[in-house]
Design a protein that fits this description.
heterodimer, A: 396 residues, alpha+beta, Gyrase A, domain 2, Elongation Factor Tu (Ef-tu), domain 3, six-stranded mixed beta sheet, six-stranded antiparallel barrel, 19 strands, 19% helix, globular, B: 526 residues, alpha/beta, FAD/NAD(P)-binding domain, eight-stranded mixed beta sheet, 21 strands
């Protein structure tokens, strides 16, 4: 950890930096929540295929984390989030979103229920002011614990095998979205069966002071299983295949949007299933009830696109003439063997069957060309291996 | 216990706005109950016995804003409202005894002829501008970006009303509206006494000094209430300010309103996302189609509704309303009429103002910025007993004063400083009435902290929240919710925290009733 004043460290180093930096042979970094984060260690295909065929480590320490505790924590979380937090049992994790008054999504993330009255909220963006301004009237404390928890995502079919090699007893029986506590050489280690790859995988949470030790133990345990550190590029491919959306990539966080029309409701993001109108009041509920009555303007969908050219930033047309939307994430999926994309469409166009075309832009040696490719709306995830859910986790 | 009867509307708070709203609703055939926490109706517009036999106006002491539709539609005269005095002159007190008396645009006293002319012109000009604003006091503020023709019409009317002032005057309006009162007065006038008294008018009841930007707007806003609010000008009701409350209560009762005093409300019961009932401190639950709160917005939303029924952004705005009061109320019981050298008995029946120059008022304000009270406060005085002997026993008198500035969050707290501040206030008056101290037989000082406690007004602000450009009209009480409705269906606001604010005006209560009735008519489950 650095001891320089913050203004001299425009980009912070994560607790794993001492290990990730020497491995980052191509020296590709980018910024994530104020931290230097590896884009790619050596080669993207190798890292991507390690996710689907072996085991990978990705440093998720920059994730923004809030601890919410107090006798009213459950009531507080239930008002903050759109889903029914009362149904979330201790030792379980849930995917969740939260909205502003207008029912527009501020962010998505995972909620860890650590106790009857203790939660951990992991988010892409920072929300301390919003969380604290939601607190008056509730006996809760909201604390930013981002810097006091180091995190590693261990993902891939061999991830459980690696943890077993590290002698985490009973890890194979941990169910998806479950949390388990372990002791690693006297240090508490929290393991959750969660991740952003849509594959079998875990996230490991530890005291930053013990981060490097954890890394070393994992690399040692995974040496025979091709445990590969990966950068955010490989992870991004896996998350698109999994059909996961990302804040400020597939939609603009409501409190970042300068133009009000860029804000998106849960319905517009295809997250209807996360909205529980029967649990009582939550922030944005009245606006969402109105939207349910009057209809939504947009729909986020998965697309299957003809051909092999990834439809990055493609505009979507209906009947080749009327623009009805755009692609926010796209790739050729090596695993699904499909040309896939996440796109936001006008609701009316999304509801009509067929007639959609993607206008794909390809740069052929400094010359942009465009091609039209037929596309259709398909269910997500694009890739969904049974091992993702299997309990006990399969051994390979 | 849940009581059997279900009301069409339950009004929380029996202050003047609550009573006005109740009466207007009952007049339209609704079954209405008013619940008041105190044993007496009236809120800040009630009488208080400050010494045996001495009746003083508890807070508000001048009737000048009462909306004409309230007066006429609720037949207040028939219900006993009489004025003991009307068109009170304002006396600008001068330390040397050369007092000025202002009545409308006229000045009596020694003042440069040029100032007399300039003030006549300025007064007319301000009244015309205030007159253009006046219609909006009695109207539901439009929704910005609203889709209803009513919203557009109201906005268009506001524009038209200002445009009708004529090109030159509209420009003048736009020029001065964001100015500070001191600059405007310095532009137009030279006499310190005159400017001081007028500057004090501009900032009465606000968190402003005369040099605070926007103090011309608060002045115009006050004049707008006065411009057409009372042909009687500044008036004193016979029987004290409590008589206004009595007349409103009589009118309400006559229209079939049920009233319960000594009935504090514990919470507003929200069921299926609707305000469905009111739970009393006694534990009783009263069911209703609508809950109408004349309590201030912070009390209503933070205490009575509770955050679990509200959204974070909305609560942020509610909590951000600036509600810290800084006007204290001083009531003195006197064994005889005080002697103000240079003023005869008739003049003492006027409104006496201690604000000898602009700097005096600004210096008084300076203290409040740092959490201190004014060592030399600016003061507005009435002696209602000059006009109405019934308010004090045998030859005694009551002196009622609004004293600025007394910030609610005083450094060191009010308990430790209340007496010292009252001494300062009395000394400031005694400078103009040397024998005053010896005539005092009873003294009562209400600081904003006392007003907050005794009248259940968060912050103890007589407007339930500053009247400033960012908390006015479409932005009052919070942006997006200026139409008396709230995010909770069936819950309305009708108090001073809503447009157009405080003062014994009754417009908020009247407008809220209109909004509720319109919603009922439209079949909104109001």
């Amino acid at each position: 950890m650095t001891t320089k004043p913050l203004y001299q460290t425009p980009l912070l180093e994560t607790p794993f930096h001492a290990r990730t930096a020497p491995l980052n042979r191509v020296n590709e970094w980018s910024r994530w929540a104020g931290y230097a984060t590896v884009d790619c260690f050596t080669d993207l295909p190798g890292e991507y295929f390690a996710i689907r065929h072996a085991a990978t480590l990705f440093d998720v320490s920059p994730m923004v984390k809030y601890r919410i505790a107090g006798t009213d924590a459950e009531r507080y979380m239930n008002r903050l989030l759109t889903r029914d937090v009362r149904k979330l049992k201790q030792g379980r994790v849930a995917y969740a979103i939260w909205c502003n008054d207008d029912g527009k999504v501020l962010d998505d993330g995972t909620v860890f229920r650590l106790g009857a009255s203790e939660f951990l909220l992991n988010a892409q963006e920072r929300h301390l002011a919003w969380l604290q301004d939601s607190a008056p009237g509730y006996d809760v404390t909201v604390e930013d614990v981002s810097e006091s928890i180091a995190g590693l995502a261990l993902q891939g079919p061999l991830s459980c095998t690696v943890l077993k090699a590290m002698e985490l007893d009973g890890i194979a029986d941990l169910k998806p979205f479950g949390i388990a506590e372990f002791d690693v050489a006297g240090t508490p280690l929290t393991v959750s069966r969660t991740g952003f790859t849509g594959d079998l995988g875990y996230e490991l949470w530890i005291d930053p002071a013990r981060a490097l030790d954890l890394w070393d133990r994992l690399m040692e345990a995974g040496a025979l299983h091709r445990l590969t550190p990966i950068g955010s590029q490989a992870l991004n491919l896996a998350r698109i295949e999994a059909g996961f959306i990302q804040t400020n990539a597939d939609f603009v966080a409501a409190d970042h949007a300068v133009r009000p029309t860029r804000q998106r409701s849960p319905f517009e993001l295809g997250l209807d299933w996360l909205v529980d109108f029967d649990k009582g009041h939550f922030v944005g509920r009245r606006a969402l009830l109105r939207e349910r009555e009057t209809g939504s303007r947009y729909r986020l969908v998965g697309l299957d696109i003809e051909g092999r050219k990834p439809a990055h930033d493609a505009l979507i047309y209906h009947g080749k003439s009327r623009q009805v939307g755009m692609v926010t994430s796209a790739m050729w999926s090596p695993t699904a063997k499909r040309n896939i994309a996440l796109a936001t469409l006008d609701a009316a166009a999304a509801d009509k069957a067929g007639g959609l075309w993607a206008e794909i832009y390809v740069n052929k040696e400094m010359k942009w060309e465009k091609t039209a490719a037929r596309c259709r709306i398909v269910a997500r995830p694009f890739f969904d291996p049974p091992r993702r859910r299997a309990t006990p986790a399969p051994d390979y | 216990m849940t009581e059997d009867r279900k009301y069409g509307a339950i009004i929380i708070g029996g202050g003047h706005n609550g009573l006005v709203c109740a009466a207007f609703l009952a007049r339209a055939g609704q079954s209405v109950l008013v619940v008041e926490a105190a044993d007496q109706l009236g809120g800040a517009a009630r009488n208080a016995e400050i010494a045996p036999g001495y009746t003083a106006p508890a807070c508000a002491h001048i009737l000048h804003l009462l909306h004409p539709r309230v007066r006429s539609k609720l037949k207040l005269r028939r219900h006993g409202l009489k004025l003991a005095a009307r068109r009170l002159p304002t006396v600008a007190l001068d330390p040397d005894g050369n007092h000025l008396t202002l009545g409308g645009g006229r000045i009596a006293g020694t003042v440069p002829e040029e100032d007399a002319r300039s003030w006549r012109r300025l007064h007319k000009r301000l009244l015309r501008m205030a007159g253009a604003l006046h219609p909006f006091l009695g109207r539901i503020p439009p929704r910005l970006g609203g889709e209803s023709w009513q919203d557009r019409l109201t906005l268009a009317r506001l524009g038209l009303s200002l445009r009708m002032l004529g090109k030159a005057e509209m420009r003048d309006f736009l020029r001065i509206v964001n100015m500070n009162a001191a600059d405007l007065l310095d532009d137009e006038l030279s006499d310190d006494r005159l400017k001081g008294a007028l500057a004090f008018d501009a900032v009465l009841g606000t968190n402003f000094g005369p040099r605070s930007p926007g103090s011309v707007l608060t002045w115009l806003y006050r004049l707008a209430g006065e411009a057409k609010g009372g042909r009687s000008g500044l008036a004193l009701p016979a029987g004290g300010m409590g008589a206004v409350t009595d007349a409103l209560a009589a009118s309400a009762l006559d229209l079939g309103v049920d009233i319960r005093t000594g009935t504090p409300v514990r919470r507003i019961v929200v069921e299926d996302d609707r305000a469905a009932a009111v739970e009393l401190e006694s534990g009783n639950v009263l069911r209703t189609r609508a809950v109408v709160s004349s309590a201030d917005p912070k009390t209503t939303f933070l205490d009575l509704v509770g955050p679990e029924h509200l959204d974070t952004g909305f609560l942020r705005r509610v909590r951000s309303i600036r509600t810290n009061g800084l006007a204290a109320k001083l009531n003195l019981a006197l064994d005889e009429l005080p002697d103000f050298p240079g003023l005869d008995r008739a003049a003492l029946g006027g409104r006496l103002v201690i604000a000898p120059d602009i700097g005096y008022v600004e210096r008084a304000f300076d203290h409040s910025k740092y959490g201190e009270y004014s060592a030399e406060p600016a003061i507005e005085i009435t002696i209602p007993t000059v006009h109405d002997a019934s308010l004090a026993p045998g030859g005694g008198h009551v002196l009622s004063a609004v004293v600025q500035y007394a910030p609610r969050d005083l450094k060191g707290g009010w308990e430790a400083h209340r007496d010292a501040f009252a001494d300062h206030a009395v000394a400031a008056i005694a400078r103009y009435a040397p024998g005053l101290a010896g005539r005092i037989v009873g003294r009562q000082l209400l600081t904003p902290a006392d007003i907050e406690r005794d009248f259940r007004i968060a912050g103890g602000h007589w407007h339930h929240g500053d009247l400033a450009v960012d908390q006015m009209l479409m932005l009052r009480p919070v942006p997006g919710w200026a139409q008396y409705g709230t995010p909770v269906a069936g819950l309305y606001l009708c108090g001073a925290g809503a447009h157009p604010g405080g003062g014994v005006m009754g417009a908020a209560g009247m407008n809220a009733a209109q909004r509720i009735l319109a919603a009922r008519k439209a079949g909104n489950a109001a």
